[in-house]
Amino acid sequence: MASVKYVFEKGSKSVKMFTVQTKACKKTENSPMKPLLVASPVEEGDYPVVVFLHGYLLYNSFYSQLFNHVASHGFIVIGPQNSSLRLVERVNNFRQEETETSALYVVSGADTTEEIKSAASLLDWLTHNLASTLPPQVRPDLTKLSIAGHSRGGKVAFALALGKVVSSPIKISALIGIDPVDGMDMGNQTPPPILTYEPNSLKLDMPVLVVGSGLGELKRNALFPPAAPKGVSHEQFFNECCAPACYFVAKDYGHVDMLDDETKGFRGNLTYCIAKNGKERKPMRLFVGGIMVAFLKAYLEQEKGTLMAIKDNPGRHQ
């Protein structure tokens, strides 16, 4: 049981967290013009890579404590900020300026097509550029690439893994959905729809982890709908996955309880009022981080003991 406890605590690796401001001379499929938040071990070694797509209208920085937790166990975690960027070319000196205008979700509305394309473009960018951004002697192992996402980001992660809209430019070894959401309700899915309402219909050539929140299906108040409505959230995603697939639900926690203890600004304040929450965020965040670590070590590094121990006694860790 000591190893089980270990994944829910900070790992042994020292972590450097930094941002990468991606700039390009022109828009191309291989140049994702978006800032990245990266959490990387600093000790020399080869590390698997996890790309984490944030939730609806959220910032990647809201997940910094979760990223740090996962990275401390020997993973490079990359969180792109889905945003609309504008390049201004000054003809005289060809200087390029990058300006964030607004969240991509605001620009694109309900349709997630552009987010799926953007995620695929990022994966291609990583194959050529990631190594040069990391601490010295830290080597990304892109043969062990996982894609994860929270809420709407979870839907986008599933879409890319399924080859919706566009195929992934590199092989995805594992898929993680953290309280994934495919729209407002059954019959009101955001395009392109992921859920088919047929058991085991999502043909994914990779292991899948789905983590749900017990309070996500409940309204916080009359002003807002549930953050993760029943029928388009975690339970349905898992029901449609084929083996191997793992499923855990934190029954006493809400849709955004894996975020940082403090999320500031207008969007950060919204996270406290649009979704029903547990008593505090830290337990849910450690639970999500620990489950992610156990799952990734089981399927990427063939260390399945911890994941199986959690499976056999899940109530101990909720």
UniProtKB/TrEMBL annotation:
GO molecular function: chlorophyllase activity
GO annotation terms (biological process): chlorophyll catabolic process
Gene3D superfamilies: alpha/beta hydrolase
PANTHER family in the cross-refs: CHLOROPHYLLASE-2, CHLOROPHYLLASE-2, CHLOROPLASTIC
UniProt-recorded name of the protein: Chlorophyllase
Taxonomic lineage: Eukaryota, Viridiplantae, Streptophyta, Embryophyta, Tracheophyta
